[in-house]
Design a protein that fits this description.
alpha/beta, Aspartate Aminotransferase, domain 2, Aspartate Aminotransferase, domain 1, 35% helix, globular, binds 4'-deoxy-4'-aminopyridoxal-5'-phosphate, pyridoxal phosphate binding, Aminotrans_V_PyrdxlP_BS, amino-acid biosynthesis, Phosphoserine aminotransferase
């Protein structure tokens, strides 16, 4: 089997060394004579994995002690509902900053559960950019301000986050967590599905400031309360043990790469290769995102016609490039250059783009 260049948008590439380690340990984890999937989630062996994953995440992202790290299920999509269930009380407003389809989906759940407002939106310009910080509208009674740090479908990314002091800033970081340095203190809560930069699907990470766990939640079903998970160290019920095991390996890998600083530099280098191929093409490749809002994780572009898009994608497939199709809702092309996508894959794609154009 030929090696492929995996540019999938999620689930997406995992570090090869992590997969090989998981393979080597699959039938005998840590001398237990069984796989990690077959252990009790309350066993010492699993507990070590679980604790190590929390500690590594805290270390890599420099998460202050005033925050809790939780491992939940239900994907980022369940967080769209859990956030308003928990925080959107009568008389309060869930303030959503719209930068793409995922923020719209978060807003949709908020609307089901309470009063909402749109503090900013770039929908009118096809979500090609991120709103200017001084164009955001806040309300005195905001329960929270919600944003999507990286827009997986449109290929834009917040470069600088608003400073919000009257309410917690809550961010869906599903598609760029662990890809760059983040000032955690700016946020009341951060959540992310694992299946891009963190590991396989199945576990959802929540980083929540402790004071937000004090909210009155008597009306919320037990499993949907953050407090339930914080009080039980995410072991209220059976967690997705294999996903957490893989997450732990991926975090170890990030640390071995030199941590977030090194990963961020590499991500910039990788994305530049592809954006340069776009910018130096005399308009043959047209990037969807405005330059100052460009994502380092999802690079979206179009060729001069739908026909050319198809030909470009078909030929790419023959050459071993996987996952370059744009999201089914917008079409075009998209290269997702998450942490585990090697530099060589981006060099190969950049070369292919140049050759194809010629
Ligand atoms: N938010 C963002 C930014 C995403 O990219 C995705 C999935 N691609 C989701 C939310 C939904 O995540 P999940 O499938 O884990 O519910």
């Amino acid at each position: 089997m030929q090696d492929v260049f995996n540019f999938n948008a999620g689930p997406s590439a995992l570090p090869k060394s992590v997969l090989e380690k998981a393979q080597a340990e699959l039938t005998n984890f840590n001398g237990t004579g069984m796989s990690v999937m077959e252990l009790s989630h309350r066993s010492k062996d699993f507990e070590a994995v679980h604790e190590e994953a929390i500690a590594l995440l805290k270390e890599l992202l420099a998460i202050p002690d005033s925050y809790k790290v939780l491992f939940l299920q239900g994907g980022a999509s369940l967080q769209f509902a859990m956030v308003p269930l928990q925080f959107l009380k009568p008389g309060k407003i869930g303030n959503y900053l719209l930068t793409g389809s995922w923020s719209e989906k978060a807003l949709k759940e908020g609307k089901l559960l309470g009063e909402t407002a749109v503090g900013a939106s770039t929908k009118e310009t096809q979500y090609r950019s991120i709103p200017a910080l001084d164009a955001i509208t806040y309300n005195e009674n905001d329960a929270y301000v919600h944003l999507t740090s990286n827009n997986t479908i449109f290929g834009t990314q917040w470069k600088e986050f608003p400073t919000v002091t009257h309410a917690p800033l809550i961010a869906d970081m599903s598609s760029d967590i662990l890809s760059r340095k983040i000032e955690i203190e700016k946020f009341g809560m951060i959540y992310a599905g694992a299946q891009k930069n963190l590991g396989p699907a199945g576990v959802t990470i929540v980083i929540i400031r402790e004071d937000l766990l004090e909210e009155e939640v008597d009306h919320v079903p037990t499993l949907l309360r953050y407090r339930t998970h914080s009080e039980t160290n995410s072991l209220y019920h059976t967690p997705p043990t294999f996903s957490i095991y893989m997450l732990n390996q991926v975090l170890q890998w990030v640390k071995d790469q030199g941590g977030i600083d090194a990963i961020e530099r590499k991500n910039e280098e990788k994305a530049k290769l592809i954006y340069d191929a776009i910018d130096e093409s005399d308009g043959f490749y047209r990037g969807h995102a405005e330059k100052e809002s460009r994502s380092l994780m999802n690079i979206t572009f179009n060729l001069p016609s739908e026909e050319e898009n198809k030909r470009f994608l078909a030929k790419a497939k023959e050459l071993g490039f996987v996952g370059l199709n744009g999201h089914r809702s917008v079409g075009g092309c998209r290269a997702s250059t998450y942490n585990a996508v090697p530099l060589e894959a981006c060099v190969a794609l950049s070369d292919y783009m140049k050759n194809y154009r010629r």
